[in-house]
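To whoever is on call:

I kicked off a structure prediction for a single chain this morning and the downstream step that reads the tokens threw a length-mismatch warning. I double-checked the sequence; it's 751 residues and nothing unusual in it as far as I can see. Pasting both halves so you can look.
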Amino acid sequence: MTDDPSHPASPPGPFLARLAEAVGIGPTYRDITGRVHSVAAGPLSALLAGLGRPAADEAAAEAVLRALEARWAERALDPVRVVVAGEGAVAVDALFAAAAGNVRLDWRLEFEDGGGRAGSAHPGELAGGRTEGPNDEPLLAVRLDLGAGLPLGYHRLCLDGPAVAGRKGCTQTLIVAPARCHLPAAWEAGGRAWGMAVEPYALRSAGDWGIGDFTALADLARAAGGLGAGAVGVTPLNALFPARPTHDSPYYGSNRGFLNALFIDVEAVPDWADDPAARQRFAGPAFARTRDALARLELIDYEGVASLKFDALRTLFAGFRVRHLEGGSERGAAFRDFARRGGGELAAHAAFDALSAALGPDWRSWPADCRRPDGAGVAAFCTTEPEAVDFFLYLQWEADRQLAAAAEAGRQAGLTIGLYRDIALGASPDGAEAWIHQDSLVFGAEIGAPPDAFNPDGQGWGLPPFDPHALGEAAYAPFIALLRANMRHAGAVRIDHVMGLARQFWIPAGGSPAEGAYMRFPLEDLLGIVALESRRHGCVVIGEDLGTVPDGFRERLAQAGILSYRLLYFERGDGGFTPPAHYPQLALAAVATHDLPPLPGYWSGHDIETRARLGLLASSGAERAAKRERVEDRTALADALHAHGGLPEGGHPSPDDIALSAYRFLARTPAHLLMVRPEDVLGLVEQTNLPGTRDEHPNWKRRLPLTVEALMADPRLRRLAAMLAAEGRAGPGMAPLAVDPGSQGDGDRQD
């Protein structure tokens, strides 16, 4: 794959360079320091091979390039076009044989809602002109005027008549999108809100089964709304691997379009109340001892939790099947309706989970006729084992119902935004999403990041990227489905690594980040779709724009109404930490993320000690340098908090004072949304996820030390809520909490 290491990396030849540019691979890139890197011929060829366009030498590159040009020349329309509503008449590009200039073209635009419009023209009379295809073939490249006032939505353009005789690609999905995403009306007037950001698995409640669940999330949403919060944010809720419960990273899941069944509260499933025999089975002292032992753990035992929950859920499903499916009840009909509305994606996901239980967790090692959703082996399995598939449909049905209940609990309690969900950048290559959408993915590359100051060797994330060309051929259907699934029951979503809408750093399979290159993505099309789905769902969109951000990218996101993601740790300038007034209004502000130490751990340097203990710092000298730098950072942060966060001068501030001052600092920014992590308030030092580790650190396992009820009654959190209300971030109609700012009072509401 790579060039001979004993010789300098060879630059690409002219045809290889042209081919790479034609498919969107950048020949150079600029790193975070400003240094320009050139991509050598070997990595370019490897990435092209991963895209299904092998070009091992110049002759092969020329042949592939000619084939691409020929395909372009034979199509009348691109498969999809995204336009912005309200920008005058809409015109689409079309390509005809030169001989069709004086013959009739009929067109028909079918609106999503059933209406439409139609017209006729002669291609030779349209704006545009002659061009040349492969082998100097004369063509007409024209613009077809469809008129103004097109409604928002997903429409279908069809060409007919003598002008398109013998042409391919005579239909196009025309997507008419708004210019900006949804924003709450209060925000348009400068409103500001706050929310709580949690890992849902970390939540505790009395009697839980060893992991946070949707009932605990509902309790948190209800209580947070009562404290004046506008949102409750969660890390991805996406489906993981029932057949492999230790595969627990929410950012490396099985399917981003469906839900993690381990978050189901078994005792809240209607069949628990309806099935006394099932309840009796799980009422004995042995079960109670196991459940309580799991619930007491500081770190989640995923295998133990999965064994307990799936055993109970299978028992409930068996009773449901007899009473409701075979009995033909209204509840049984509701289940079948959910499965029908979920369509092929839901059916395929349930089949994947059932097949995983039967054949093993990695679909790439299954029998050949099961390695595709449309394989004969899959159809045979679903026919002979319908109950196995229905069980996993049942899990998704109940997870969706409980998540909806949590969202409704928050709305009823006054959350003005509601649940704030996170859309991970990708999914595991051995998961259901990769199996279902394998024709749109590139398995010969992984998404990552180039070397930078934080990761001198770069990063490879093991996530197979979507092929932007395949997405276009599918009229962006997988991307649209992903947005819809995550905006469901949500008032806001965060797009992880939002720069991926414009470009992604691809590393050839088996290569290193140093051999990677940036792949161009259709930013304007994807932004339009995000805005359309945002408006339809009434859903705020936040873009995680940390790291190496292309010039002008944040400004383009702001034009689209997408919030920037600003972290206290990173908002720095030559003069220290960025003052609150200099934060943008269209932003989410936070102290840190799950990938960074909570504020008490950052302040004490606990994260540096952890990294040194795990061998993540190259030497003792590196550890000393990191500690020296942290002392400087802490001094600069203290100065900022003294100036803008009300941190008392002199002495050694307590962790509680530091947390309160840091959030007061952020509360004073104009940012529309401020997210609070309970770890900062509770004085916790361990971070949720330590990048660069797997088993060395308990990533995605640590639970909060308090139940939701105790957390929301904690005087430290109530004091923080009172401060946020005083800074103008309480929900509408919320009475400020009466707490002496100099005390650790309990913060009870005023009457």
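Update from on-call: the warning came from a stale cache, not from the record. Cleared it. Sanity check on the structure: Confidence is low (pLDDT under 50) at residues 1-8, 733-751.
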